[in-house]
Amino acid sequence: MKILVTGSSGHLGEALMRSLPGLGHEAVGIDIVPSPFTAIVASIADRSAVDAAMRGVEGVLHAATLHKPHVATHSRQAFVDVNVTGTLNLLEAAVANEVRAFIFTSTTSTFGDALTPPRGAPAVWITEDVVPIPKNIYGVTKTAAEDLCKLFHRDHGLPVLVLRTSRFFPEEDDVAERRAAFEEANLKANEFLYRRVEIEDVVSSHVLALDKAPSLGFEKFIVTATAPFVEEDAAQLGIDAPGVIAKYFPSFPDVYAALGWKMLPTLDRVYVNEKARRLLGWQPRYDFARVLADVAAGRDIRSPLAIAVGAKGYHPR
Question: Is residue 178 packed enough to be buried (19+ CB in 10 Å), middle (13-18) or exposed (0-12)?
Fold first, then answer.
């Protein structure tokens, strides 16, 4: 299958471009930033560039976006141009070229204020049924782009799957309080319990989505590491997360103590990937159990693909 990968110079885009040829696909990358993985240096907000890039394409993996950290460096109009107009351009070109599958990389950030319960309240159990409450221009434009995807499936029959990915970036956390409170590796290990996914698993979810889109038509999926909890744990997670985690991983306190690490005292949300596992047949390989075993053995918790892609940062303008 000939696949157009948008954002091919970014974290996920490069990971997809590295992986697709080995799976028998022809991958063509488009991005505003030049890289060895980008054949077309152009903006997806440029309709003529999108039309040219879409010729002969059978599948689209739309990973290009302005991200949450860009809220501090880019205008709201820039977010609309890239995340909304860019997505519209791609959807229209995909319909015109009779693309077989369109996969939109969205984000769990769309849930926004739905993720922040009052202190001491149960952790929010986040499934696809939770209604997003975007809290910044990033969330607003990603939600709008999701709505465009649904519209194009309804009006044109375009098979579109929306993958709301949780955190997979390697950069430092964007919240100063968390950066001050935790070693970066410690913080990321904790996040595998409830809000992080490994990039290798994100790639596999996109590849499966390409195959499943024609039969599923339109669906939204949360793409995150498999959490160890059940919904009945939510109340206790909101007041004593280490106590709950120790029930599932009795060795974790000793492993963490040996590293000088600490666990979050409470969890405010748990992302649930059950729908993606059930309907896509997705089986993420990286979870907290694997992370705990790796750190106990002194191994790098990152996948080989994550190491190869490395850290890219976010373009400042």
Answer: middle
Provide the 8-state DSSP code for 133: B
Token digits for 211? 């195959």
Lowest average pLDDT, out of 46-55, 59-68, 122-131, 248-257, goes to 59-68
Q: What domain range includes position 76?
A: 2-181+194-226+269-284+302-309
* Residues classed as catalytic: 138
Q: In sequence order, what are the beta bridge partners of 31?
A: 41
| Among 285, 277, 210, 213, residue whose Cα is nearest residue 5 | 210
Q: d(Cα 249, Cα 267) in Å, to the nearest integer? A: 16
The predicted pLDDT at position 173 comes to 79
Measured CA to CA, the distance from residue 46 to residue 89 in angstroms comes to: 8
Q: How confident is the model at residue 314 (pLDDT cuts 50, 70, 90)?
A: low
- Number of domains into which the chain is organized: 1
**Alpha-carbon dihedral sign for residues 200, 15, 196, 110:** negative
Q: How far is residue 4's CA from residue 39's CA, in Å, rounded to a whole number? A: 10
CA-to-CA distance for 139 and 202, rounded, in angstroms? 20
Tokens of 25: 């696909």
